[in-house]
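Sharing a chain and its predicted structure for anyone who wants a worked example. Both blocks are below, sequence first, tokens second.
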Amino acid sequence: MSTPRTKVFATAEEALRDVVRDGIAVMSGGFGLSGNAEACITALARSGARELTIISNNCGNQGQGLAVLLQNRQVRKVICSFIGGNPDLAEQYLAGQVEVELVPQGTFAERIRAGGAGIGGFFTPTGAGTVVAEGKETRELDGRMHVLERPLRADLAIVRAAVGDRFGNLRFYRTSRNFNPLMAMAATVTVAEVDRLVDVGAIDPDDVHLPGLFVQRIVEVREHKNVIEFRTTRGDPRAEKVKSPR
């Protein structure tokens, strides 16, 4: 168990136990299934919490990742920028069982960044003159119409990093960094799931992608599925020709 002197928890279930409850907003890093905090998602599913608002680029994919929460009927609303490849979300949205707020991807990222930076809103030309602008304040700036977008914040953020130290300084693996740092800054409580936990000082300061100031809880998870949505391989035709019997 965690003590007041450490942010480290033994399991994702322990890290989330007193945070997860019905009706909270959860930010989940990841793009497709890359950068998903797999153990934290599993712990959320096992918690049984319902009426959740999920803020994620996509709420899972092909029945995996956050889609498990949809399958468990734990989700009330999804704020995302992409729903392709997610039949669970499409089915429940069309049936009126889940509310979906689609946000242009750049606007989505900036709304999260604004939430973490304490910015009350921003004007963007993206979506002006479309359904995205319905019900929102608009203003002409430099001859172009702009839409006022509000920040996004959450009660909980679950993020995944390749390496983390005991203070919560994180380093992400290549493109799996995606939305993770932004979401960590925009939530009341951030739980970081790290592939490898190291001592403070083991990560060079220049290699820190997210300072530990934004991380309240850490759990080391050594094994992950690391699912790729579509794995397509094609052999070299020249190699095949060489290998073929004459």
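Comments welcome. Residues 105-117 form the longest helix (13 residues).
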